Amino acid sequence: MDTIVRRKLEMAARVREFCRAHASTEPGYAPILARLEDRLTKATAIAAREQEGRVAARGARNHRRELRRVLHFQLVRYLVAVGSVAAKDRAELAERFKLPSGNATNVAFLASVRALLASAEPQKDLLIQAGMKDTLLDDLDRMASEMETAIETVRTGRREHIGARADLESITAELVDQVKVLDGMTRYRFGDNPDMMAEWKAVKAIPGQPRNVVSPPPAGDGVVPPSSGGVAPAA
Question: Which of 60, 129, 146, 218 is most solvent-facing, going by the fewest CB within 10 Å?
Fold first, then answer.
């Protein structure tokens, strides 16, 4: 989760607790607080979905990396070595048993492994005579299938993560809007209470976010800005 988004969600949770502790019976207060709570609940669920997608993709990437390492440095090398021996008596096999490029993409690497398997299956008896273990092709096929699954899991996890992140940014923006309305209500209610306003200021602060600085009105316009942030007295 993006740091700023996480801090905004934490701020919204603090605002919710503040508003619950200082509830008002004024019309309009309960609905706006309910909207805040509803969006905060949804945001929490979306954040969990984003984290699940991130964790799933990370785990699948690690598994995919390990599978590729074993395939490339152990099983495929073994098959290519045996194939090169068998090809000495079968010149037409020489071009079929080549080690895949180490720089190939995962998809291209997997395609090369599948091509090797396709070439090896009809020549299984010959390859066994050349020194191949009789279970090698089955092990290769199994691990190639596992790698295919890991690749798809990475894609799915990435899609879930990216989609959830977009949803989270959207609902976080809605939360910020609700907090702005509650800020106006709180200033109207407690603007002449410095202690309460100090608490409110701390509650809705977002570390790392620039603060909005409100310039005082020009002198002589008849409006005196209150030091506590409340409603200015009538002239």
Answer: 218
Q: How far apart are the first and last CA of the chain?
A: 48
Total-model pTM:
0.67
Longest dimension (CA), the chain: 106
Output phi, psi for 234, to 5 deg. Answer: -65, 145
Nearest to 164 by CA among 7, 12, 23, 56: 56
Q: For the residues of the chain, what is the DSSP string, one character each?
A: --HHHHHHHHHHHHHHHHHHHT---STTHHHHHHHHHHHHHHHHHHHHHHHHHHHHHHHHHHHHHHHHHHIIIIIIHHHHHHHHHHTTT-GGGTTT--PPPTTS-HHHHHHHHHHHHHHHGGGHHHHHHTT--TTHHHHHHHHHHHHHHHHHHHHHHHHHHHHHHHHHHHHHHHHHHHHHHHHHHHHHHHTT-HHHHHHHHHHT--TTSPPPPPPPPPTTSS----TTSSPPPP-
Structure tokens at 131: 């020194």
pLDDT surpassing 50 at residue 33: yes
Token duo for residue 213: 């600085």
User: Which amino acid, one-letter code, is at 157?
Assistant: G
Structure tokens at 77: 């090398």
Q: What's the CA gap between 97 and 106, in Å, rounded?
A: 19
Predicted confidence band of residue 231 (pLDDT cuts 50, 70, 90): very low
